[in-house]
Every structure is written in C-alpha cells, then in structure tokens.
Design brief:
With about 80 residues, this protein is of the alpha+beta class. It has one domain (about 5-75): 2-Layer Sandwich (GMP Synthetase, Chain A, domain 3). Helix content is about 40%, strand content about 25%. The chain has two helices and three strands; from the N terminus they run αββαβ. The protein has helices spanning about 5-20, 50-65; strands at about 25-30, 35-40, 70-75. Strands 1-2-3 form a three-stranded mixed β-sheet. Strand 1 and strand 2 form a beta hairpin. The protein is globular, with a radius of gyration of 12 Å.
Length: about 80
Amino acid sequence: MENISEKIIEVIEKIKPFLQNDGGDIEFVKFENGIVYIKMLGACADCLNLDETISNGVEMILMDEIPGIIGVEVLPNDFNSPAN
C-alpha cells in the first residue's frame, strides 16, 4: 500500500498542469499531523486569488481524494525543508 505522501504527490501532479497554464506551480513539502504543507511558485506565489485557489481548489481536492488530510498550509518560498 502506498504511503500518504506518495498519494499526495500523485494528486498534486494532477493539479500542476492547471496552475502551470497560468504561469504558476505547486511543490509538496511535507505531510504532518493531517496537514499538507506546500509551496506555491511562479505566478501563484504572488497571486491575489491564492487563498481561494488553496481553499476551493488544492485543499478541497486533496481532502476529497485522500482520507486523513484535514488541511493545507502554504509555506513561504524561502522555507527550507529539513533533510531526510
């Protein structure tokens, strides 16, 4: 059985083309305590509709497709994920 991070990455890969069409992108950082941590890149990083894109798009899709996700948090682009 796949782990939850692999499932999250699969779903994010489905979302990416829509964001890339508008000059943006999304990057999975980590999953912890039910929260998916992501970075929004390119045009998405400074988009006025970012909150709506996250809550009505990314978060809704992830929560619908993967049990155990309770939310999505956007990390600043200068956040460095800890080495695994």
